[in-house]
Specification:
heterotrimer; A alpha+beta (141); B alpha/beta (189); C alpha+beta (361); A: 141 residues; alpha+beta; 4 helices; 30% strand; C: 361 residues; 3 domains; four-stranded antiparallel β-sheet; globular
């Protein structure tokens, strides 16, 4: 679910569009946009303080097709994209059915690979800016 | 969480919540008026009217106290999923839900402070009978007098006597609800 | 006294239409897209997110476009939108120790374990205008090196080991929330930090600078400044456990400050803390300095009467939306107000002139 929460909406939508076993479903809770108050630690390690909110979209649904009938999927995803939340909940539901492997290789694995690549790319650029400072010895007057 | 906890909420929240809020507001503004609400199907033993009020009035910032038989897993989970309201005790709750007999006596609920009388609890009480007959009501929002079937009068009179402090009530029965703010004076016939 | 004024509807509509036209600017210049603002005006977007107190880069970019680049107006738009969002809950505490850093520097330890990473910084630029940017051109990719994946420890932890710095133990205390209850003094540190992180960058910078110049001096070193992304987790009631709901970019600054000790504490270093949405390091450093100055009471220090030590002064004036709302309202119609002042002055003048005449006679 964390992978789905962070996935760029455009990528998730594209990967889902290419997945052909889309199930039928009913809403238990239609997608709604809201906020979550993000909390930080005072001094980095101490007690909580309220840092500010972030936008979140959530929804819950139930599959209604044949063998998958009744399986429930939930989604809490970053941002305000209702389609992204819907897809995330469908993937969450399908991961509990025999289609799990298919949806994993069609949607989750590409997201994981791309996420890792982006992270590595960023870390590699950061590593190139790693610096060694030398202290110059001050001369005696 | 049980599947049943995820069902029975508003299917079209913006419209249904607005309609339900209108009903709750009218009921509270005109004590003695009975409103009918239908848009939710909460799990037993919660009535439709109490369920609709919960969906409309509760959110993560309104601690809710469940009294008696309503304090059961089905109702707890349903309220948690659909409203996000934290379950609390009677001394800290913003709303209390239960049968009248399980909610009383009133001491222990928050009644507000003289600076902030609004920091008080609202009790949603399930009653067996709700009809426009019985006790005489008068006060703000009532032209002359109105009548309403009340589960008892002494508790409500004592609450009224603390005005502007006190709790407010919704009485619910099936799909019907009525409001009884602390400002209403009640007299048994 | 406020009295409603009527009329002016047509003029207001026309003003809004002209505003829209001016916002668009010359038609022969291509229109800015939200994505362009988000990607190329990132630090403005970050500031609007930090002071608007809502992490959503697309919304902040939209607000900047709508506000014609007036960042305080954009913050206002974000704050107004924020109030319409249902609150799904409070997240678990963000662990900055696990941050994926793009920048991490220390002014106190040159050989900081984990290394000093400059990241995309202005620090060593020459601040000369780069006229090449005036022309569109392709850009070479930034160089890469062997990446370090995984968390890097906080530098202050090393001082912690020797007990040389005051500890910041975790606790379960529920912090007060400015978005839910009005500011009520005295404020505890949690409330002060929330107020500072969403406070106006210019104001917090000015306050911080005043401490450096001697108004409540607290000798700050930047122990560590780190920028990067942190995962955000929240408990989900229907699941019964916490999941990651996204990630936010943060700037964190920990200052190390001299402390000579008090009756109860031996001399050790103390800390100031800044944590702000986005890449916003000037703000984070300023926040840490002001946080430290405001801690005089809990550290048993002397109140020297410096503005940055005055909780009421700092917290009541840090919010630019409150400030601009009150400031700008004085340009709106106050005709009745002023009419009474006018009559009063006329009357006082008539009386004064009468007295003068009497004196002359």
């Amino acid at each position: 679910m964390s992978l789905l929460a962070k996935a760029p909406a455009i990528r998730l939508t594209a990967l889902w569009a290419a997945f052909d076993a889309k199930p039928a479903f009913d809403w238990l809770r239609a997608p709604e946009v809201g906020g979550a108050m993000v909390r930080g630690r005072m001094g980095g390690t101490g007690g909580a303080f309220n840092l500010g909110e972030m936008t979140v979209t959530r929804c819950s649904l139930r599959l209604t097709d044949g063998a998958e009938n009744g399986v429930i999927g939930h989604a809490y995803v970053q941002g305000r994209d209702k389609t992204k939340a819907e897809i995330a909940a469908l993937v969450d539901a399908l991961m509990q059915t025999p289609s799990a492997n298919a949806v994993k290789s069609a949607v989750l694995e590409p997201l994981l690979t791309e996420g890792k690549a982006a992270k590595t790319d960023r870390a590699a650029k950061a590593a190139a800016t790693k610096v060694e400072f030398f202290t110059m010895v001050r001369g005696e007057d | 969480m049980q599947v049943s906890a995820l069902e029975g909420g508003f299917s079209d929240a913006p419209v249904q919540a607005a309609r339900a809020f209108r009903a709750a507001m009218s009921a509270m503004a005109r004590p003695g008026t009975i409103e009918t609400v239908t848009d939710a199907t909460p799990p037993a033993p919660l009535s439709v009217a109490a369920g609709v009020l919960a969906l409309t009035l509760l959110d993560p910032e309104t601690p809710v106290y469940l009294a008696g038989a309503l304090d059961c897993p089905q109702v707890r989970e349903w309220i948690t999923f659909h409203t996000g309201a934290p379950i609390a005790g009677r001394s800290t709750c913003a709303f209390a839900l239960g049968r009248w007999a399980d909610l009383v006596p009133l001491p222990g609920y928050r009644i507000g402070t003289s600076s902030y009388p609004d920091r008080s609890a609202t009790l949603i009480a399930e009653v067996d009978l709700l009809e426009p007959s019985g006790t005489t009501l008068s006060g703000p929002g009532i032209m002359g007098v109105s009548v309403l079937s009340l589960p008892e009068t002494e508790t409500i009179q004592a609450n009224h006597a603390q005005f502007p402090l006190g709790v407010d009530f919704f009485l619910t029965c099936g799909d019907r609800l009525a409001g009884l703010p602390r400002s209403t004076k009640v007299e048994a016939l | 006294m406020y009295v409603a004024v009527k009329g002016g509807e047509k003029a207001i509509d026309a003003a809004h239409a002209w505003l829209a036209e001016r916002r668009r600017g010359a038609k022969e210049v291509p229109e800015l897209s939200i994505a362009q603002i988000r990607e190329q005006m990132t630090l403005a977007v970050n500031r609007v997110m930090a002071e608007g107190s809502l992490f959503d880069p697309d919304l902040a970019a939209l607000a900047i476009k709508q506000a014609r680049g007036d960042l305080i107006e954009a913050v206002f738009l974000i704050r107004a939108y924020r109030t319409t969002l249902p609150r799904f809950g409070y997240t678990l505490l963000v662990e900055t120790a696990k941050m994926d850093c793009i920048r991490r520097i220390s002014a106190t330890f040159k050989d900081a374990p984990g290394g000093q990473v400059l990241g995309p910084t202005f620090d060593y630029t020459h601040r000369l205008l780069d006229f090449k940017l005036a022309a569109e051109g392709s850009l070479p990719d930034a160089p890469k090196a062997e990446p370090h994946i995984g968390p890097v420890p906080h530098i202050t932890e090393f001082l912690n080991k020797e007990d040389l710095i005051q500890q910041e133990p975790a606790n379960d205390k529920e912090p007060r929330d400015l978005t839910r209850e009005p500011l009520d003094l005295p404020a505890d540190r949690a409330l002060r930090l929330q107020s500072l992180t969403r406070g106006d960058e210019g104001f917090v910078l000015g306050m911080a600078y005043s401490t450096q110049r001697g108004y409540g001096r607290n000798h700050a070193f930047v122990g560590e400044l780190r920028i990067g992304t942190c995962a955000v987790e929240m408990e989900i009631p229907e699941l019964g456990f916490a999941i990651e709901i996204g990630e936010v970019e943060l700037t964190e600054c920990e200052t190390v400050n001299q402390f000579t000790g008090s009756k109860t504490e031996p001399p050790q270093f103390t800390r100031g803390y800044g944590l702000v949405f986005g890449q916003t390091e000037r703000k984070a450093i300023s926040m840490a300095l002001v946080d430290r100055a405001l801690r005089w009471k809990e550290l048993g220090e002397e109140n020297v009467g410096a503005p940055a030590q005055d909780e009421e002064f700092v917290l009541y004036h840090a919010d630019n939306i409150q400030a601009t709302g009150f400031l700008e309202h004085i340009k709106l119609p106050h005709y009745v107000d002023f009419q009474s002042e006018l009559e009063l002055v006329r009357k006082m003048r008539a009386e004064a002139m009468g007295t003068m005449q009497e004196a002359a006679e």
